[in-house]
Amino acid sequence: MRSIFTTGAAALAAATILSGSAFAESHAALSGDLVIFSDMSNPAPRAVMEGMVERFGEMHPDLNIELTIIDREAYKTQIRNFLQANPPDVANWYAGNRMLPYVEAGLFTDISDLWEEGGLTETLASTQASMTIGDGIYGVPYTYYQWGVYYREDIFEELGLEAPETWDEEIANCQAIIDSGRFCYTIGTKFLWTAGGWFDYLNMRTNGYDFHMALTNGEIPWTDDRVRATFANWQQLIDMGAFLENHQTYSWQEALPFMVNGEAAAYLMGNFAVAPMREAGLTDDQIGFYQFPQIDPSIEMAEDAPTDTFHIPSGANNVEAARAFLLFVTSAENQTLINGGDGLGQLPVNSQSSVDDDEFLSAGFEMLSQNSPGGIAQFFDRDAPAEMAQVAMQGFQTFMVDPSSLDSVLDRLEQARQRFY
Amino acid sequence: MFPTPIAKTSRTWQLTYQTLLPVAMVLWLLPLLAVMWFSIKPGADFTTGNYWGLPSSFEGFANYFLVFTGSDMPRYLWNSVMITVPTVAGAVALSCMTGFALGVYRFKGNLLIFFMFVAGNFVPFQILMVPVRDLTLDMGLYDTRIGLVLFHIAFQTGFCTLFMRNFIRALPRELIEAARVEGVSEWRIFWYVVLPLMRPAIAALAVLIFTFIWNDYFWAVVLTQSPESQPVTAGITSFNAQYRAMYHLMSAGSIVAAIPPVAMFFAMQKHFIAGLTLGAVK
Q1: Rounded to an integer, what is the distance from CA A27 to the centroid of its chain?
Q2: Number of helices and strands (H, E) in chain B?
Q3: Chain A, window 31-60: residues with a beta carbon less than 8 angstroms from a chain B beta carbon
Q4: What is the mean predicted confidence (pLDDT) over A295-315?
Q5: With the C-alpha atoms ordered B98, B99, B102, B104, is the resulting torsion angle positive or negative?
Q6: How confident is the model at residue B2 (pLDDT cuts 50, 70, 90)?
Q7: Homologous superfamily of the A147-304+385-420 domain (CATH)
Q8: Torsion of CA A259, A263, A266, A271, to 10 degrees
């Protein structure tokens, strides 16, 4: 383990004091029942959740914690029901626009005072914006991971290329890769969302974070010229032949072999892509990571980093214990522990936590906490409402296969926008 | 006799038959063979694109070991047993009684009741999805094994009753009448006269229902969702982790899940075939 923040003793001392005071507050003998509904149903997250409950329970022996873990997909439909009918004290959900309907319906508690008291505005600064709606902060994050371009460092070296920082460099790189008989990017759009990632980045680089959020929130027509500018940049890559052929027939996993076997040089993907690449025999010397290049220098860089969260429903009975649990979850110590390689293997949200000693996690942590001034988006299908995301991502796929269909795609998306918002 | 036995056909036809048969068999079994093949490959083969080639290393033991030790598979298998066995017992027991009542007694509405059992089989079960889910939820049986068992018993009893009633109809009525003349009570007739004669039907039906229920996926997904209650057919999807699918483990898990009904089939082959054709020829 290695701390990214090298301020050393000072930061450490501050962390101890902070978490110390947080724990002191929460130690004021919690009792009663604490009901937690969680969607961390996959094996590793499940173990993490159960571990957290166990450790929190040891700190508060008088507290009776009831943990219910619900299948991650089923949870998405059940939450609508249980937040009203049978609210727990703590519930999992997602950041950004995904929590907007529940915030608007008054089902999540505003905990901005907890953020102030617990010093979270300092330690969780990188995700504060994505937890904020209007003037309120409606939950705490517990983990996230970065998106970016994973590329074959050895192929780049062979062709004498550097990781691009601007769009011109990007296009030049891509041309060189195509000339060497490879695809610049592998992608599998069979399940659509991978195309959503491309749109996120192209749109955030072309028009900025605020525009992207307004668009996914239904405030801007899809036929707007600024949206067309985004697609024009996309088309530039498509027309060059940058993307893997027949990508609509592959899942994201099935598109991996093209990169592993050197037929494609890079992959715009979340950090979870690293594990299978390593398993397939690529060494860390062969895999590189770079932030999606800048397109318009006047626009601040913003990133996709899907964030998973905890909230206190407004119907919670044991608010005191719930608040203590949220502080416990976000504490630097717990964040280091649960996001480590034997836990979630992702990025801790607390800036004073240490990141697992991993090239890509470190790079992601640095990028998100220092090089993403524009903001942090959640990913297209989390930022846009589910129905809209489905239609839109289908449109992206159609566009990638046949760019000449742009007008009809945009018309269809605009119709969908008017119907769904 | 139809069809003409192969031995009696012309030599060319025999040769064509002999060459086409293996081809058809391989074609038919291809998906299954692929799953078997995948189950001995390391996960990395799927990331390097080596789907059909030789495994880069033999991971058969490791995969199957992991299925049993590194996942909830043993629990899912146990759930399957705890769902299938009570369902078989319940459906067979109930249908023996309904079959006896409908096959032996002549009363008004006999045919109507029988038709209702049969008609139940014609209801496409997808239509029942939402009401049944709501019903189990209201009864507090959602996501429990007992909820799944009760529904399966209710739904399977229709088919089983049709089967049993027709079988009992074919039994010589003289046996029952003779017993009545002797003054044996109706319960004792059922227990000591009819039930022993129904043994082949019970065996056949039990095997048939066992495979039906074990292989059920639809209701398992609709009515259960946690490892505490899901049977193995639904549990396999737990190898679809949050971000990626573990093809090798999923394949190994599918093979493990398929073994009990296949073993059951081979062990009870005689009854199984009997069950499919029982009542077809009188």
Answers
A1: 32
A2: 15, 0
A3: 42-43, 45
A4: 94
A5: negative
A6: low
A7: Periplasmic binding protein-like II (3.40.190.10)
A8: -10
**Pairing relation of β-strands A147-152 and A140-144?**
unpaired
Tell me the C-alpha to C-alpha distance, in Å, between residue A219 and each of A158, A199, A384, B24: 46, 17, 11, 58
Nearest by Cα to A139 from A265, A255, A374, A313: A313
DSSP character string of B117-140: HHHHTTS-GGGGHHHHHHHHHHTT
User: Over the stretch A23-79, which tens digit does the pLDDT of each residue have?
Assistant: 444 456 788 899 999 998 777 888 899 999 999 999 999 999 999 888 787 788 788
Give residue B279's pLDDT. Answer: 56
**Confidence category of residue B280, pLDDT binned at 50, 70, 90:** low
Fold of A9-145+306-377: D-Maltodextrin-Binding Protein; domain 2 (3.40.190)
CA dihedral (A200, A201, A202, A204) in degrees, to 10, reads 80
The amino acid occupying position A231 is F
Q: Does B44 touch chain A (CB under 8 A)?
A: yes
Among positive and negative, which fits the CA dihedral B19, B22, B28, B34?
negative
Residue located via tokens 């130690």? A27
- What DSSP string describes A267-303? EEEEGGGHHHHHHTT--TTTEEEEPPPBS-TTS--EE
Q: How far apart are alpha carbons A232 and A236 in whole angstroms?
A: 6
Listed residue (A240, A371, A239) closest to A293, CA to CA = A371
Length of chain B in residues, anyone? 282
CB contact under 8 A, B47 and A74: no
| Token representation of residue A48 | 């993490």
| Axis-axis angle for helices A225-240, A386-401 (nearest 10) | 40
Give the separation between CA B260 and CA A297, rounded to whole angstroms: 63
- Burial track B88-126 (b if 16+ CB lie within 10 A, e otherwise): bebbbebbbebbbbbbbeeeeeeeeebeebeebeeeeee
Ramachandran quadrant class, A160 (left: phi over 0; alpha: psi -120 to 50; beta: rest): left
Contact across the interface for B226 and A69, Cβ inside 8 Å? yes
Q: Which of A116, A97, A133, A36 is nearest to A420 (CA)?
A: A97
Subunit contact A256:B225, Cβ cutoff 8 A: no
CA gap B173, A43 in Å, rounded: 59
ipTM of the complex: 0.71
* Contacting residues for A268 by C-beta, under 8 A, at least 6 apart: A147, A148, A149, A150, A185, A187, A194, A197, A198, A201, A292
- Residues of chain B in contact with residue A260, where contact means CB-CB under 8 angstroms, are 47-49
Q: Where exactly are the structural domains of chain A?
A: 9-145+306-377, 147-304+385-420
Q: Does domain B70-277 have CATH number 1.10.3720.10?
A: yes
Helix, strand, coil % over all residues of chain A, rounded to 5: 50, 15, 30
Distance from CA of A296 to the nearest CA of B (A): 32
